[in-house]
Design goal:
single chain, mainly alpha, 3-stranded antiparallel sheet, 13 helices, 63% helix
Length: 332
């Protein structure tokens, strides 16, 4: 610097270093502030999640608190029990349970065609009972009968082999299996959606809890502004806050809850399921008649414990071997 004395030059250097030191200290302070804000938002996210859980996601406390229920709490179609049990979702197992129920109710008849039920590869015939009143059936049951009897069968009957091999005939047949199963599931949802088993918990969570999630957006804006103001690149902090926001909003998307009445029914069916699982331990409980146990097997299929139930009681093996096969459900 021309024209400056050594002392003046020295003073300028000192001023520059002082200013640089102050700016560095401010940057370090802002980094600490940003880190502190990031920690705060992490804990705030946990708090928001706990609030959302307690407010919108936690199931109501049921009045019914028995461990076991030895009879079905109410006479429902297996698809409806599954709808309640699986939070409004229809499962592939509902097909098996519905078929078992149709056989139990004599809408469909079984013929063994002279094949021993212990055969490793049995083939049975499912025949539509001509005397049955089909007008009383629900939509999903009509879809199932139409598909198996009319589409795969000869409009009067169908064999297990025909059902198993249908999807492998062609690509269009495989697509038909998928579309009919989808139609069956949609019918179940449309039939039981007005039963008021479930709350619109997700919508409530988004309308109220979702607004609280805006704190993340505000924090992201603040961190970016501080970064620009003090020449900081808070990349890690932005990632953490963004991840917290995504996880919180993602959690809100998963929220679902039964109504008080729906939760009461669910716990009764849960107690009945436990009875089916632990039946062999009840020495004082009389063995149900085969008609009653066929009904139990239908619900056991819904709960996914039919194999355990059959091992305990070893009854109605013909139904078990016939309709618990799921190969037809996987044609592709």
């Amino acid at each position: 610097m021309i024209g400056l004395s050594n002392q003046e030059l020295k003073n300028k250097i000192i001023d520059y270093e002082t200013k640089l030191s102050e700016e560095t200290n401010k940057q370090l302070q802002m980094i600490r502030v940003i880190n502190a804000l990031t920690v705060v938002i992490v804990f705030a996210t946990l708090g928001l999640a706990v609030y959302a859980y307690k407010r919108f996601d936690k199931e109501y406390k049921p009045i019914f608190n028995e461990e076991y229920l030895r009879e079905p709490p109410v006479d429902l179609k297996p698809a409806e029990v599954s709808y309640l049990w699986n939070f409004g979702k229809a499962k592939d197992e509902d097909v098996t349970a519905t078929l078992l129920d149709l056989v139990r109710r004599k809408i469909l008849n079984l013929k063994d065609q002279g094949v021993d039920i212990n055969n490793d590869d049995p083939d049975f015939e499912i025949e539509l009972n001509k005397e049955a009143d089909l007008s009383t059936l629900e939509l999903h049951e009509k879809i199932l009968i139409d598909y198996f009897i009319n589409t795969i069968g000869d409009k009067e009957k169908v064999t297990i082999k025909q059902i198993e091999n249908y999807g492998a005939k062609s690509y269009s047949a495989a697509q038909k299996v998928v579309s009919e199963l989808d139609r069956f599931k949609k019918a179940i949802k449309s039939q039981y959606k007005n039963k008021k088993y479930f709350e619109n918990a997700k919508e409530k969570a988004f309308s109220k809890g979702g607004a609280l999630g805006l704190v993340h957006v505000v924090m992201i804006i603040v961190i970016i502004a501080l970064g620009i103001r003090y020449n900081i690149v808070p990349g890690v902090n932005l990632i953490i806050v963004g991840a917290c926001f995504a996880l919180y909003m993602g959690y809100l998307l998963t929220i679902k809850r039964r109504t008080r009445a729906g939760n009461e029914e669910y716990h009764k069916w849960k107690a009945f399921k436990k009875f089916l699982e632990d039946f062999s331990e009840f020495k004082d409980y009389p063995m149900p008649g085969i008609v009653i146990w066929e009904k139990y097997l239908v619900y056991a299929t819904v709960f996914g414990i039919a194999d355990k139930v059959m091992k305990q009681l070893k009854v109605v093996m013909i139904l078990y071997k016939l309709l618990l096969m799921e190969s037809w459900q996987k044609p592709l």
